[in-house]
Amino acid sequence: MRESTPNMTPRRDRASLAETVERAQHGDREAFRDLVLRFQDMAVGYAFSLLKDFHLAEDAAQEALVAVFFELKSLRSPNAFVPWLRTVVRKHCDRISRRRQPDVPLEEQEERWMTDAPSPLDAIEQGEVSELVGRAIASLPQKQRDVVTLYYIGEKSSSQVAEFLNLPITTVKKRLHDAKPKLRRSTSKLAKRFLSDHKPSESREFSDRVLRFTAPDRAKDAPTVYNLFEAEDHPSRHEWRGGRLSDSHADWDASRVAFIQEGGDEKLVAALNVYDLTMQIGQAEVRVAGINGDVLDAELTDWRENVFDRIVSDALKSLSESGYDLVVTFDDESFWLRHGFTLGWRALQWQVKVTDLPLNGEQTLERVESTHREELAAVYNASSTGLTGTVRRPTYRRNKHPGEFSTYMWRNSGGQIAGYVSGNPGPGEASFWVDEVAGDAETCLAALRSVADAEQCAECYFDRLHYKSAVGTKLRQMSSCRLFTGTRNGRARWYVAKIVNLKTLMTKIAPLLSDRLQTTGFAEWPGALSICLQEHDASQEITLVTEEGGVQVVDGADTSNCISGDQSIVQLVLGCETPDEVIASNGIEVKGERTADLVSVLFPAQYPQMENQAL
């Protein structure tokens, strides 16, 4: 006889589930958590019916939900989530079954129960309830076992069990009815109570452990993070323990690690590093979260994009609460653009013939280790003052690339350190890679000539030297000087940026904006300019109020003079290009008669550049 169509959940519930699945597919972590909370009991119940062991069922269900997390994007129809989940759970149960030791035959177990089996009360006291219940349920045919475990562990209605198993509700009710007499009288009530009491929804522990993102515990998690980096086939893999992460400006509280369940244990499988940067915008300083360094367990390589989509989303949510104004990173710009970043600036490279550099006079150079020294940091900070994008020192205290560079410093007539240059031979033949320069520009170039000549290098290659720096200004006057965009894997190297907190950002640069107004015809302009930053999930609005030549920042946007756009507004704030270029290329809306003129005064081109030792 043909079975009737299953009694599925109401249409409204199915629509709600489909919407939740779609949100989870697009990286909404809370939506995924909702799915876990909604189906964790049934996943464990179904796994228990297959494995007949509660602890193994929990392991299988957790591993299955982790797989769902990673593979959810591959699900073509959100409406097919329930049968797909059932298939994933079965797959992980099969995998666990294959690695288990053979069970004691049920007949032998029945005989043991008959001779020396503990009473249900004794079983509870001896901690053998799981085994007792497992064996009792194992005596049921598979079809009845599925229904019983889902009904008790999942504590679902018959219709919900029918939907999960894709069966008619009448079939579910019949199997449940037929199963009850077959359970031993001594274990029937015990099974019901045990399954109900141990369902995952009794606590948050199960859902929190399926896939967990958190700030790393430096004392506890750092060794594992270092091990993950050192397991990678990457030239920098040994530098993280050597100084890039272990002794640096890394913000461990804002960084993120991911844990998954594996064999009943929690395993750290991914890390994303955030660095605490004090970055300059003109003469102002803002707090920037610099993201650099991510690593994933080699066994999860196929899920890399999915893992980091979610770990980045989680990290970004925490940055505003951590007090950051901006977030900056570089390379792989297509990934970051998906997370609301905007293109900022290209990594700038310079090349010049050594013979074009001035000869060193009587300056004595001292070779020192390329590690943090307060005197060197002070010289660097003084030399980079006002250069947008540069970062105040200290940063990497043992250098970003420990042991790779040599530093040559000189002193003034009073014996204080007056400047330094650092670098090493390479990249390319007969080329000296200049990592940093600080101090008087003429002396820096003369020092580099001495060092490059000693290394028999014909050219100097400057990595990410600021366009508006004093050294850069002198280089541009040399006939052999060539500027070009740095590349990696044949692609241009872009820095990308995202505004975290528009109000705090603009408040910190308000004195700078005031100074810019004072030098123009807007010095006495008693007006206001609103800035509206529009994003998919939220918007930020502030107004710059000018009074007596000063600028104040207030909440909200309710003026006739307004600029409105997406994260490309950060290009204006940083002066990545001229204001008219930024507005035209990004479709930023400008309202008000003199708004365009005011914007050109407030946000002139600064051509930001962030040095290698910053991030």
Strands, count: 21
Q: Rough shape?
A: elongated
- Rg from alpha-carbon coordinates: 32 Å
Enumerate how many helices there are, as a single number: 23
What fraction, in percent, of the residue positions are helical?
A: 40-55%
How much of the sequence lies in strands comes to 15-25%
Oligomeric organization of the protein chains: single chain
Largest sheet: 7 strands, mixed
Read across the widest sheet, the strand sequence of neighbours is 1-2-3-4-5-16-6
Uncertain segments are 1-12, 103-127
Give the mean pLDDT. Answer: 84
Structural class: alpha+beta
Separation of the first and last Cα atoms = 70 Å
Q: What structural keywords apply?
A:
615 residues; alpha+beta; 21 strands; elongated
Write the layout of secondary structure elements.
Blueprint: H1 11-25, H2 29-51, H3 54-71, H4 81-99, H5 106-116, H6 120-125, H7 129-138, H8 142-153, H9 158-165, H10 169-182, H11 185-197, H12 205-210, E1 211-214, H13 218-231, H14 239-244, E2 256-262, E3 265-281, E4 284-296, H15 304-319, E5 326-330, H16 333-338, E6 342-346, E7 348-353, E8 366-369, H17 374-383, E9 406-411, E10 417-425, E11 431-438, H18 441-454, E12 459-463, H19 470-475, E13 482-485, E14 487-488, E15 491-492, E16 494-499, H20 502-518, E17 528-534, E18 539-547, E19 550-555, E20 562-565, H21 569-574, H22 579-586, E21 589-591, H23 595-602
Structure overview:
α9 (158-165) packs across α10 (169-182). The N and C termini lie far apart (70 Å). With 615 residues, the protein is of the alpha+beta class. The chain has 23 helices and 21 strands.
